[in-house]
Amino acid sequence: MNMNASPEDRRRLRGILLALLVFLPIVMLWGSLTVTVPSGYAGLTFHTFGEGVDPDEAPLSSGFHFKAPWNKVYEYEIRQTEQMEALEVLSSNLLKINMDMTVFTQPEYEKLGRLEIERGRSYEEKVIRPAMRSVAREVIAKYLPEEFNTTKREQIQLEIKNQLAAKLAENYIQLNDVLIRNIQLPTTLEQAIERKLQQEQESLEYEFRLEKAQKEADRLRIEAAGIRDFEEIISKGLSDKLLKWKGIEATKEIAKSNNTKIVVVGGGNDGLPLILGDN
Q1: Which of 160, 189, 182 is nearest to 86 (CA)?
Q2: How many angstroms separate the CA atoms of 24 and 167, rounded?
Q3: What is the CA radius of gyration of the chain?
Q4: Among 128, 192, 249, 274, which is most exposed with the fewest C-beta within 10 angstroms?
Q5: Are strands 41-47 and 72-77 parallel, antiparallel or unpaired?
């Protein structure tokens, strides 16, 4: 320090040196004193001189945070993620079934500390995928392959979802949804199912034809019965006198025609009028 400097200059110089002594370490250690957690993530503080991650300590939310320079912060994605797995499983009759399973999961926010301590950040490979394989094999082993093409498919998917949700919850993971796609049955079984469906279709068509023929037979029987009843009524209602009367009325009408010349009343064998035409 210049001994010829004024007291004010010396005080200013001491202030600058003091500021450098205070702020220079802060600037140099700034990166280790702060942390910024990205959006969609949470942070877990690892206490270097403590017991590591405290499972009961609240995670750091996304944004800017201060921390001790000797501590670390582990980032965990807390958004929903997707895991897909191609599975080969056995049905109840030991036939192989290939299918694709997709699950949508996310870690339980309040239990991130326990997830880190007990399972680690690679929990997808250590927990989710093994659970998918285990539950799928356990559930599908109770069903026949042909039941996948019936209404039981939704039941199977729901059963897988419920069991998988319970298993993942034990590992501090939340299951949001399960999708089962691209189910491939054995070729021989698919052909057998197609033949069965074809036979069922032919059976339905045959039943339709029988029903149609039955209805046509019923219609003909009803029509025949109507004709028979009509003839019976007519035969009972007609008499010789009525027929003669009707014949007389018809003869009178014919006699009015210009082509009729001679009408002999009672000239016929049955007592009806006899009509003689012009020769």
Answers
A1: 182
A2: 52
A3: 51
A4: 249
A5: antiparallel
Question: Residues in the chain, how many?
Answer: 279
143 or 273, which is more confident?
143
Per-domain residue ranges of the chain: 7-77, 81-185, 188-237, 240-277
Cβ neighbours for 9, distance < 8 A, ≥ 6 positions apart = 2
Say if residue 186 is exposed, middle or buried (CB neighbours under 10 Å; 0-12, 13-18, 19+). middle
Output phi, psi for 258, to 5 deg: -70, -20
77 — phi, psi (to 5°)? -75, 125
pLDDT, position 93: 82
Return the percentage of the chain with pLDDT > 90, whole number. 32
The CATH number of 81-185 is: 3.30.479.30
- Closest by CA position to 55, among listed 104, 110, 134, 121: 110
Which amino acid is it at 91?
A: S
